[in-house]
Amino acid sequence: MNKNDGPKKNEGRWICLYILAIIGIAGLINLLMSPSIPSISSIDAPTWLTFWGSYLGGAIGCLPAIAALQHSRREARRQHLENEKNHKLSALPVFACTLNSFSFMNGQVESLTTLSGIIHLSQEHGLYGQFCSWKPIEYMEHVLSSDENEHSTFFELRNIGAGPALNVSLACAPSARISIQSFGIGEKSTLAFLIYIPPEANENYEVRYPIQIRFSDIFGNRYLQVQPLLVRKSKQALAEISTPKQLEP
Q1: In this structure, are 99 and 78 located in the same domain?
Q2: First CA to last CA across the chain, in angstroms?
Q3: Residue 101 shares a structural domain with residue 82
Q4: What is the number of alpha carbons within 13 Å of residue 150 lying toward its C-beta?
Q5: CA distance 23 to 53
Q6: From CA 120, how far away is CA 179, in angstroms rounded?
Q7: In this structure, are 105 and 25 located in the same domain?
Q8: 226 and 233 in contact (C-beta within 8 Å)?
Q9: Under 8 Å CB-to-CB from 118, ≥6 apart: which residues?
Q10: 116 and 12 in one domain?
Q11: Domain range spanning residue 55?
C-alpha cells in the first residue's frame, strides 16, 4: 500500500463527516422547530428559505477550503520527508568489503604495516580476541602462537559513501560488538581474521558468518550493513553485502 493512501483516506473521511454534520445540524434545527413555538410574526417561509440557503451555501463553500488545506498539509509533509531523506543521503557512509589473499606464512612482515588489527572468528564465539599493535612483527608473533586450526584471511573495509563513518563496530553472533576505527570518505582499513576450521572438516565444509557492520553518520543516525563471509576448508569468499539500514534511536 502507498504510504500516501492513509492521509488521502483520512481526508475523504473528514469531508464525509463534515457533510453529515451539515445535514445533521439542519435536520436537528428543523426537528426542534416542528413544535408550535411562538416566534416573530415577520419571519415567514421565504425568510426561513433564505436562511437555510445561506447556511447550506456557506457550509458547502467551506469544502474546497478544507480540501485545499488538507492538500497543502500533505504536500508540506511530503516535501519535509523528501528534504530529510536528501539531507541524510548527502552524508551517508556506505561500506564495501573485499578479501585479500596475502598470507602470514609468506613472511612479508613489511606488508603488515597497513594492518589495523587481528580478530579471531569461530562458530562458538563469533568475533572475539581483538589484537592491535603498531609493530608488524608482533602481528606475526601473534599468528604463530595461535591455534594451528585457525586460518588467516585479510578483510578490507572501505567507505565508499558520501560522508564519514563514525563509531564503527563489527559483530558476529554470539559475540559482542568490537569497536574499530572511524572512516573518512574513501578511507579503508584491513583486518586479519583468524578463522577456526575444525580439523575434522572435509571438502564439503562450509560456514556462513554474517559480519555486522554498525556505524553512524555525522548527524548521529545509526546504520547497519551485513557482509556474509563464506568459509570453506580451502578458501573463503564474500557474498553480496546489504545496503545500509537505518537503526532505531
Answers
A1: no
A2: 26
A3: no
A4: 21
A5: 13
A6: 14
A7: no
A8: no
A9: 129, 130, 131, 132, 139, 142, 143, 191, 192, 193, 194
A10: no
A11: 5-89
Amino acid of residue 105: M
Please count the structural domains in the chain: 2
Q: What are phi and psi of 75, to 5 degrees?
A: -70, -40
Give the tens place of pLDDT for each residue, 102-145. 555 555 555 666 788 999 999 999 999 999 988 888 888 888 88
3 state DSSP class of 84: helix
Domain identity same for 101 and 221: yes
pLDDT tens-digit map of 14-60: 667 767 777 776 676 666 555 544 555 566 566 666 776 776 677 76
Do 179 and 107 fall within a single domain?
Answer: yes
* Grid cell for residue 135: 609493530
The model's pTM = 0.69
Last residue of a domain, one of 59, 89, 119: 89
| DSSP reduced 3-state for 173 | coil
Same domain? For 77 and 126 the reply is: no
Residue whose grid cell is 421565504: 46
